[in-house]
Sequence to fold (186 residues):
Amino acid sequence: MTEENVAYVGNKPVMNYVLAVVTQMNGGISEVSIKARGRAISRAVDVAEIVRNRFITDAELGTINIRTEEILNNEGISTNVSAIEIHLSRESI
Amino acid sequence: MTEENVAYVGNKPVMNYVLAVVTQMNGGISEVSIKARGRAISRAVDVAEIVRNRFITDAELGTINIRTEEILNNEGISTNVSAIEIHLSRESI
Fold:
């Protein structure tokens, strides 16, 4: 069974999320799922790329999923937003 | 052999790119590759989701690739930018 952990990427600086993912993976978690919605999707791709190019070079890109989610705003009106999920994994040491 | 065409997503309104992809696919092209870099990545995901949810409901998501590209700016200094490529296809009619 693979352990899985999720990193939700929002509007903070990209290195905050990079650090979170690197910390998880160096702590022994073999698979991390990087998730984001809307404009943060670009940042989620940055996070995955920076982690595997600069910090954990033996991390492998797994499947990348995209989908549409429905969001209710404060007035109860629903809008659609795109979402992404990027899997990064590495073999146990 | 599959025909392939490429839609580059930039900073124009999302429906411009949706229309381009829908036109290509309705013109008989069975596979379209949606590409974007940097902040336009989020928009590329929107394009793929809008095309397959609203316009071409039998279109299928293929592989999604992400990578890092090196860009030279006007002063010759290179910076890294993330890029995405989303494949949409549908069987020939």
